[in-house]
Each structure stands twice: as C-alpha cells, then as structure tokens.
Amino acid sequence: MVAMQIDVFGLREGHNALHFEETLDALELTEHLIPRGPVHRAGSVYKQGTQLVVRATLYYELASECNRCLEPVVQAMQAPLEAGYQISPTVPAETNDEEVTVISVNTQFIDLTEPIREAMLLAVPLKSLCRQDCRGLCPICGMNLNTETCTCKPSRPDPRWAPLQTLRT
Fold this sequence. Notes:
Layout: E1 5-7, E2 14-22, E3 34-48, E4 51-65, E5 72-88, E6 100-104, E7 109-111, H1 113-123, H2 162-168
Parallel strand pairs: 5-6
Antiparallel strand pairs: 1-7, 2-3, 3-4, 4-5
C-alpha cells in the first residue's frame, strides 16, 4: 500500500488488515487546523466480490487555537473512516448514491485522501478550549485573563436593558 492509497489488485476476499501510519501534509485542512506528527490508521478493507468497504479509525494530534484566549491547543483526536466502493466494468458519469463510489475494473489504486480529509474535518470539535475553565480575553484591553488580572472597568450597560434591571431587585 502506498500513502493514502489501497492496492485493489492486492486485496483478497474477506477482511484485509489496514494498519500503518503516515504524514498527512497533503490534506490541507485549514490554516487553523494542523495535524501534528503522523496519523495512525487501524482498520480493515473488506472485499466481497465487486464490493469494497473501508472501515478504519484515524488517530492523530490536531493543533489549533483556543476559541476563548487564542492560546495554542493540541488535542488527541480519533476519527472514524468508512468508505464504500463498487467495482464495475462501466463507470457511470454520475451516480445518485453518495455512500458508494463506483470504480472501474482497471482501477489498481483507490486514493483515500478525500475520505480521510472529510473524516478528520467532521471530527473537529465545535469549540477548542485550552482548558475547561478558560477565562478568555478581556473585551476591552485584550489581556489573557488566565495569566493576568485585568484592571479594566466594565462598560456601561446598554440603556435599552434598564427595564429588565428592575426584575433583578
């Protein structure tokens, strides 16, 4: 197997182990999401006749920044990968099935770059935090409230909310 490719001609019927690691510089996730080190894959390719199913788990570290204080964050990640392929003598120009990719009988290698990229993007948490109790940045001076105490005074509240203040007392 070559990096991010499966040799279709080398597969036997049934389960074929899929265990290796590689760097994923070619994925280009985004400028704020950077895989650190190699990505490890563990799983299998199941072949039954003309059908192939790739099931694996991706293990990697993802470097990003905290959504509250903008400090660097490195997270250990796991992403499930599943992709289905149908080997056919004729490959249709378009298929309605998004679950299965039709490939030609002459296709020797299946490129997993895009399915891996999609699996990694889907596994990205909605919010990255350096720690659960991150206090973020001061909205006035921009100081990191995790490391320093800010002396800024809070701004005056919007006068439109004043009628609601009477409900507090």
